[in-house]
Write a structure and sequence with these properties.
heterodimer; A: FAD/NAD(P)-binding domain; Elongation Factor Tu (Ef-tu), domain 3; Arc Repressor Mutant, subunit A; 4 domains; 20 helices; B: alpha/beta; Gyrase A, domain 2; Four Helix Bundle (Hemerythrin (Met), subunit A); Rossmann fold; six-stranded mixed sheet; 46% helix; globular
């Protein structure tokens, strides 16, 4: 049979937020890359909420940016409102969140892809993975994969031969959308589902499961009465996501969002129609995220609450459509109309798009290494919702890492693995590939044990260097970061060594700020630790001060004010790193380690942790098992 | 999370008993410095640091710099020529449970921590001191010691204490979840709400007071129950409760639990001839008439699982039946005394036919079969003698672990206290709320160590369980 055969380096399956980052990373590292999508018009589609960022997700976007990814730059070009959340809290939980112009976001990302050298966009459904038995490259090769990926086949029969495949299929695999009794076998937003790849994956031994998520209705903005809602504004001074965006470029006219509430009447309608909800009627088999519960779930699980928040957010500048945050649902259309209309301001609303739930195939990501490569199939990587996560930012972060590591594998370089002390991305991926996860995984700041170190404000200081070494960050950007670090170091030194005496004018300065008077000479750094004082306030008595960029001052202030806490976390990180550095050979046979408890042995055999640190985080592996393992590894080494 | 600490560890190297000498071994970078804090030589000097390696010295252990505690011999072995290859100090003190404990306490107070089970051996191995061929044996030791310690530490904890610890943990995780929910969904939950900080501060102080109460109890050894773990089993109406009453009445030495708290396990501590016994009966088993039929074999099995001694009471006036067979299945392998009760009634089961019924069961460890009548108090003396005999023969024994467990729990409670103090300080210093939860989480984890619970996904589950999150 005549066949279209194409040779390339990397195939990326899916062009959502994960796929875009993966494809851009590979192409930017000089590899010929093809990105497949069922619809070119749906590149970087935002099928759910119109935001990028938010608590802990904002951290992810900044980290993606610091590593050389695209998401931060793209949202800086297309946002219509921006807010720094948690400003009144500690710096570790400040998070940026922007409202996106969805269509614009998608269009801009498409443009970036189209202009990227080495990158080809292909509209096609990939339905088969092509593999060969894996042959060890040398005696010392401890890879346990049975197969290696050699290409993909599309529905129309074209074969793309390649060295690596990155699966970023999002919610498209065997997707099913539910709106009450109405069920359609489509992907999000009515797009074509991918119905064939699942079977190919299963035949290769990949285990699949079903997850579910949902989205609320979109309203015609002209039918909403905003006078009954609270207006929500963006920040006066916008901070960009990307470290390379000039802050002056993002001071735009912003749009507003609106806040309203459900009430008893809404809840009554929902309760009366629960039997028509596919979830409560048992039609949906997949597990949904606890973080984004449907309004049905909220009403049932939190029956004591008499109201829930509803956020009305614009979908873009060139559309009337408004997103109804907080009210995702899979109830039938007639119930939706009745339910939404009980909400103040929505009494006369007209629904443009119904709310729906979507169910899809994804994997248990414990089949992956922290590099996001499949343990059993060499050269096959995956990222995003396919890995059991939720959210655009989580997807993009994984897509970037999966793409980078596909490239590293082809280039014969070591995989890029961020650990839990380096980045939220590290926490995200470690959680996914190590812990049991029964629902779509959402990033949360409470998941990061070293969050004082993993701030959104220092993502560049933490990760620029890694991005530079990989080859995704320019020399110029890297040097700018080095320079920033040096300025911070010097200023901290200066503040620690500038001593303020107990002179009269200093005492009256302190008194004027409600601060205790000095008994002895005190450094400016020590004074900055007082809650009522700050770098800015101390400017008055700080004679040797030279003007510094705002981002430098921010770091100086945080590092001085929270020095004790930061030092404590750094000590914990040291302990943590020791265990992360103790690697476990991939081909270690745990059956030889006779003193392990049975449960621990089974888990270790099933998940092949790469380090003793990772092993210690697997549930069912006790500290005693880790001791035994350490002893065994010592023995094994010799 | 597991972390390989490179700190200084201490443990009692000899069995804790009332006679002979006791040895406390201290190993690690700071071993010499730590013991130097509490050791004075014959001239009353603080001189440990200047002694050569592999030397032994007469002197005294002191508390608070000058109060004499005991006369000791202290040996110093400097790295790498010691068992663990680290600096090691051994304190040979006068035996006696109290003295050995006291000195270990002082060592801990001076900066060492209680060694994990098998940790000396593990360090010796990882530092290359033990031959690689012994790796297998080392792993087995670590495995066995940990299994044992884990089981015994939970087993020894008083029901009331574990109840308090659980409650404290629940309170703490709830507050953390609230704060974290608010940090994660700031438009939804408001930490600035009226008086939350004062409320939290009061809660933390309250928790801290309870923790300090537990620390005091631990100082007095009151959070653990000591004694031989004994379980009474038998068919309905065989005389189980009569036996318990007789035992309790015999010595009038019930050690009562802390009052006013729920007890999920009925437990009496009884002293027989100076030996402490912890006699167990789950409340459920006692309130129900038929262990085997109504509660089921599984429940009985669980009760017997940790027992060091089983008292199987049989009604000799009713025939041996399948229920007895089931009980025998359950107590297989356990040290057992069988009481053929109701000897005042006409007997259908004799000692001889019982012995022949038992002869097929190879793993059964019945040391005595004694005819009793609880009603007439017949055979009780004989039974008590038999129990004492078993103890002195070493069939059943005290374990040092009670003390070690106590010390570990105390250490964990101390950690909890320190974390809570840090939280109080953060609140008072008006630090942002995200700083509180760091130390609250440490407190939660340390409390978990006491009752053998890990942290896992607790916080995430609490957040989603109690707070309606997200859009």
């Amino acid at each position: 049979m005549l066949q279209n055969r194409v040779q390339t380096d990397v195939c990326v399956v899916g062009a959502g937020h994960a796929g875009c980052e993966a494809a851009l990373a590979c192409a930017r590292l000089g590899l010929d890359t093809v990105i497949f999508t069922v619809s070119v018009d749906s590149i970087a589609l935002m099928p759910c909420n119109p935001n990028v960022g938010g608590t802990s997700k904002g951290h992810l976007v900044r980290e993606i940016d610091a590593l050389g990814g695209e998401m931060g730059k793209n949202i800086d070009k297309t946002f219509i409102q921006s807010k720094m959340l948690n400003r009144s809290k500690g710096p570790a939980v400040h998070s940026l969140r922007a409202q996106a112009d969805k269509a614009e976001y998608s269009r801009q990302m498409r443009k970036v892809l189209e202009q990227q050298e080495h990158l080809t966009i292909k509209q096609a459904e990939v339905c088969e993975l092509l593999t060969q038995p894996y042959e060890k490259s040398s005696e010392s090769d401890d890879c346990i994969a049975a197969k290696r990926v050699v290409g993909v086949k599309t529905y129309t029969g074209a074969v793309y031969e390649c060295k690596a495949v990155v699966l970023c299929t999002g919610t498209y695999l065997k997707a099913r959308c539910l709106c009450g009794e109405a069920i359609t076998y489509t992907g999000p937003n009515g797009l074509q589902a991918a119905n064939h790849l699942s079977d190919s994956l299963k035949s290769l031994g990949v285990e699949l499961r079903r997850f579910k998520t949902g989205t609320p209705a979109r309203m015609d903005g002209r039918t909403i009465d905003y006078s009954k809602m609270e207006e929500q504004f963006g920040d006066e001074r916008v901070i960009p996501f990307s470290f390379s965006t000039d802050p002056e470029d993002v001071q735009i006219d912003q749009v507003s969002c609106w806040l309203t509430y459900t009430n008893e009447k809404t809840h009554e309608i929902i309760r009366a129609n629960l039997d028509r909800s596919p979830i409560y009627a048992g039609i949906i088999e997949g597990t949904g995220p606890r973080y984004c519960p449907s309004i049905e779930d909220k009403v049932v699980k939190f029956a004591d609450k008499d109201r829930h928040q509803v956020f009305i957010e614009p979908e873009g500048l060139h559309t009337n459509e408004m997103y109804v945050g907080g009210m995702s649902s899979s109830l039938p259309e007639d119930v939706q109309v009745a339910m939404y209309r009980t909400v103040p301001g929505l009494e006369n609303c007209k629904i443009v798009r119904n709310a729906y739930a979507i169910e899809y195939d994804c994997i248990d990501p414990r089949q992956l290494y922290p590099s996001l490569e499949f343990k059993e199939i060499r050269g096959l990587f995956s990222g995003g919702q396919f890995n059991g996560s939720s959210g655009y930012e989580e997807a993009a972060a994984q897509g970037l890492i999966a793409g980078v590591n596909a490239a590293m594998m082809i280039l014969g370089k070591e995989a890029v693995i961020l650990d839990r002390s380096q980045a939220y991305i590290g926490v995200l991926i470690d959680d996914l590939v190590t812990k049991e996860n029964l629902e779509p995984y959402r990033m949360m700041t409470s998941r990061a044990e070293y969050r004082l170190l993993l701030r959104q404000d220092n993502a560049d200081l933490r990760l620029r260097e890694i991005g530079y070494k990989v080859g995704l960050v320019s020399q110029e950007a890297y040097e700018a970061t080095l320079h920033k670090r040096e300025l911070i170091r010097r200023e901290i030194e200066r503040l620690k060594h500038t001593v303020i005496g107990a002179a009269k004018e200093n005492q009256s300065f302190l008194a004027s700020h409600g601060s205790a008077e000095l008994k002895t000479g005190t450094s400016l750094a020590e004074l900055m630790c007082r809650p009522e004082l700050s770098y800015e306030i101390l400017g008055e008595i700080d004679e040797g001060r030279i003007p510094l960029p705002a981002d430098v001052i921010e770091q100086v202030e945080i590092e001085i004010k929270y020095e004790g806490y930061i030092a404590r976390q750094l000590r914990q990180v040291e302990q943590f790193k020791k265990m992360e550095r103790k690697s476990i050979p991939a081909d270690l046979d745990y059956n030889d380690v006779s003193s392990l408890r049975l449960e621990a042995r089974q888990k270790l055999i099933a998940y092949h942790p790469v380090s003793v640190g990772q092993a210690s985080r697997i549930s069912g592996v006790s500290p005693a098992d880790i001791s035994v393992l350490l002893v065994y590894l010592e023995h094994y080494k010799k | 999370m597991y972390s390989e600490k490179r700190d200084t560890i201490a443990a009692v190297a000899t069995a804790i008993s009332d006679s002979g000498i006791g040895i406390i071994r201290v190993s690690g970078d700071d071993a010499i410095e730590i013991v130097d804090e509490i050791y004075r030589n014959a001239k009353g000097e603080k001189a440990l640091k200047k002694y050569d390696t592999h030397t032994i010295h007469y002197g005294f252990i002191v508390e608070d710099k000058d109060a004499l505690i005991d006369e000791v011999m202290v040996s110093v072995m400097k790295a790498p020529k010691s068992y663990t290859t680290e600096d090691t100090v051994e304190i040979n003190c006068h035996g006696g449970i109290l003295m050995v404990r006291k000195i270990l306490d002082l060592v801990i107070k001076a900066g060492a921590r209680i060694a994990e089970p098998g940790e000396f051996t593990k360090r010796a191995f990882l530092n290359g001191r033990i031959d690689l061929s012994k790796a297998e044996a080392v792993m087995d030791i670590i495995h066995a010691k940990n299994e044992f310690a884990l089981r015994s530490s939970v087993r020894q904890l008083k029901g009331s204490v574990s109840h308090i610890v659980k409650e404290l943990r629940e309170d703490i995780i709830h507050e953390i979840a609230f704060i974290e929910a608010a940090l994660d969904d700031p438009e939804h939950f408001d930490l600035e709400a009226d008086g939350y900080h004062e409320l939290l501060l009061e809660k933390i102080r309250q928790t801290d007071r309870q923790v300090q109460g537990l620390i005091d109890s631990a100082e007095d050894g009151k959070i653990l129950s000591e004694g031989i773990h004994t379980v009474i089993v038998g068919k309905p109406n065989a005389g189980k409760s009569s036996l318990l009453n007789v035992l309790v009445g015999e010595e009038r030495a019930i050690v009562t639990d802390i009052a006013g708290t729920t007890r999920d396990i009925l437990e009496e501590t009884v002293s027989i001839g100076g030996i402490m016994f912890r006699i167990f009966d789950t409340a459920g088993i006692r309130s129900t008439n038929d262990v085997v039929e109504k509660i089921g074999v599984d429940r009985a099995k669980k009760a017997v699982e940790d027992a060091e001694l089983v008292l199987y009471i049989m009604d000799s006036s009713v025939p041996f039946d399948e229920n007895d067979e089931k009980i025998l299945d359950v107590i297989d392998g356990k040290n057992t005394i069988i009481l053929l009760n109701k000897s005042d009634l006409s007997s259908v089961v004799s000692e001889e036919n019982l012995r022949s019924l038992l002869s097929d069961r190879k793993n059964l460890r019945v040391t005595e079969i004694i005819r009793t009548s609880m009603k007439d108090r017949f055979g009780i003396e004989l039974f008590l003698e038999a129990v004492k005999e078993m103890f002195f023969h070493g069939d059943i024994s005290y374990h040092d672990e009670v003390y070690i467990t106590n010390a570990r729990h105390k250490e964990a409670l101390q950690d909890v206290h320190e974390s809570l103090v840090q939280v109080e300080k953060s609140i008072e210093d008006q630090m942002p709320e995200d700083f509180y939860t760091i130390d609250m989480m440490s407190a939660y984890a340390s409390l978990g160590k006491i009752i053998g619970e890990e942290v896992g996904e607790d916080l995430i589950n609490e957040i989603f369980g109690k707070f309606c999150m997200g859009k």
